[in-house]
Sequence to fold (302 residues):
Amino acid sequence: MRTRAARTADLLVVFALFTVGTGAVTGCGSGSRQVRGADQAPESHDRARRVADAWDGSKAAEVWAEGYYPMGEVVQLPENAFRSGSDKLAYGARNLVLRGELPATTQKDGQVKWESGGSLTLPLMGARDAFATVAGGSSDGPHLTVTMVELGEMSLATSRGPAMVPAWLFALEGYDTPLKRVALSPSKLPEAPIKPAGEVPTDELAPLGRMVEVAGDGRSVTVMANHGACDDGPAVDVLETGGSVVLSASVVGTKDGPCTSQLLAKEVTVKLDRPVGDRILLDAFTGRPVPHEENGPSADRS
Fold:
């Protein structure tokens, strides 16, 4: 029989693999579990405070404030997608078939233009590279047909607020509006001013998965939080300061008895006392910004 301590050690190993990109994540639904304030373990609260203190006013925070970091999905679906279950399956399988050729462009750079003012010029992603992020499945079975590709723009939530960014527009057969894919990669992340936490029991502190979205009014944040197969799921606490929002994830309700070493992930929505604004979202475990992965097609959460 596996003990709770042994399972905690297993989860720490699996989470460590996950944070370096070698672990697999299995979705297991969504929810809005969160823990706040007095319910949080003292060790977790102290860690969150150290992370906030390290970042607030730091050079890393200055670099972040000047960069381009998406906080919304870099792929936007056509309006009223999807018209059928087959189309939805095709998109999820990245089964997009191109009719014709991808356009070549001599344009090397693109510009992020923030709604609040200011802009940033970054290297432009070519149509071929952008298409590869949304397509790549086999042509067998249900598929979506791309009839035309052109360079345009789209609105995107970023760490500095809403912005207009260059985007590749993929016209899909049967749809009135295109599938849009941002044509820029994020700025390079600054070096964190604090090291990751050491070995900590997962019921006290665990690494987050990734950012899912920031609500339109900025008053809540949804993230993927990791947990195991023999617990009640993840919880996420928040510490807000003037310059940052530190999220501390943990695993709740670890159970005794036999258990597999399996890493699961669940959406957790955390409510904030005030809008995120231009504050940086940080993971208390890693001491780094919460990642927003550019995965192309993402699971439908409706």
Observations:
- The mean pLDDT is 82.
- The longest helix spans residues 4-19.
- The two ends are 39 Å apart (CA to CA).
